Amino acid sequence: MKTSLLNQSKEIIGLALVAVFIYFFLFWDYEIFQRQFTIPQNLLNLNTIFLSIVIEAIPFILLGVFVSSLIQVFVSEETVQKYIPKNMIVAVLPAALLGAIFPVCECAIVPVVRRLIKKGMPLHVAFVFLACAPILNPVVAASTYFAFRNNTDILIGRMALAFLLSMVIGLILYILFKQSNQFKVTSEELIGRGADPSETPMKVNRLKATIYHASDEFFDMGKYLIIGALIASLFQTFLDRSILVSLGSNEFSSPIVMMAFAFLLSLCSEADAFVAASFGSAFAPGALLAFLVYGPMLDLKNTVMLFAYFKTKFVLVFMLVVTVVVYVGVLIYQAIVF
């Protein structure tokens, strides 16, 4: 009874919000509103940044949930397990190689990884893919090349560090968690509403099952994307960037500063190289590499999604492992190359 009342209230709220949107879209005169009320510039900036993050991420989220749905409907558990090496340490290498040819942005990677784990991919192998795929794919390589065409060391360093460090991250996760289940049980799954359409007894053709699954997962992921985008836009609007620049002069502190900056900005990995290039005069190449490697592996919007679907302890350990591994890796690369 409580569940049906909750569902009805959600539907009523949803319909009310749609009605409000249609009213404002058809009848709201922005010029009159602007003359009567003065909106602070910070709020306008916040609105612009928030919308830009959401609009930029939605196509990739759609790609991610569609790929996730194809995996759910067309790929069996036996197929996934067949192509994974039995040696759990060796298994991290094909995951990193798969990331090099799979064009998935970090905005789309969480639903894909979640589905692969449910299909039988080992936890640490899936998170190798999560860490490297948003960086190693050809689109990101091309954008990095054009952003740093006068400094190919940045391109080479980004690709090499992503490939090597993702495998290190995976091995550490395997040592810490082995094959344990780190999924968080949601309330929908407890009451039986979280089942995948393809797993229900209802006979549905595969195309319909893919569409049903993609739509469910898109709205499930979408709310966490919006929360993450809002937090990221708040930091972008109100964070004083001059403080970051002032901290960027030290070769040991500057990578940490840029890693924090990448986490807060939550940029798409296919566009972050151009933002990093704009900091070229203020930060050392090692700090720029830290920005370019850390951000796609871990940012605010991805973190919100990870906390939604994985156990809190696991996500916190994953964040710590990624932070330490990337920082140490960048320092080593910086000492050898620059």
TrEMBL record:
The chain crosses the membrane at residues 12-28, 48-75, 87-113, 125-148, 155-177, 221-239, 251-267, 273-294, 314-336. The keyword Membrane applies. InterPro entries: DUF318, UPF0718. Its main location: membrane. It is found in: Cell membrane. Keywords: Cell membrane, Membrane, Transmembrane, Transmembrane helix. It comes from the Bacteria. The keyword Transmembrane helix applies. It is a multi-pass membrane protein. Belongs to the UPF0718 family. This is Permease.
